[in-house]
Please model this.
Amino acid sequence: MSTFNVPKREEVSEKNQAIFDNLEKAVGFVPNLFATYAHSENALENYLNLSNAKTSLNAKQKEVVNLAVSQVNNCTYCLSAHTAIGKMNGFDDSQILELRNGQASFDSKLEALASLSKNLTENRGAADNAIVENFFQAGWTKENLIDTIVLVGDKTISNYLHKTTNVPIDFPVAQSIETLEV
Model:
């Protein structure tokens, strides 16, 4: 696995420098994975537009998807980032562990979302009919289904980018599921 450098502000285009400045203001720093997108003139802007696009899922629901997808794709960077973001959205450690496993015993509607997200990712988009039906029975809509699929794609892009570039993780590192379940 190769390791890419994380470009500094002065090493990226003026367009990406402006995006770095906006990230600094909004987040307090430029996450290494976002900086890595800036090796491309357009990828960082395109990814942020996708990631920040309007959706029928709220921030907490998006974290359900992000955690389940990142676990299936075994992306430690995204698991670390979304564990921190999940906590900011009100999930505790045991709930985050469940969500990473595609479960949510604490909330049946989120359980259906986590299960669908895991299943979609494991099956490369060919979700099991029973899981899709359970998703609808839990109160989700067709709009929610489409938005979930888009979010699975969004997170998969970042998972793949990290798995290929192996840039350093700049969040508290999430433990492996095996370590946590012992």
Observations:
- The chain has two domains: 9-51, 59-181.
- Residues 9-51 form one domain.
- Residues 71 and 136 are 23 Å apart (CA to CA).
- The chain has a mean pLDDT of 95.
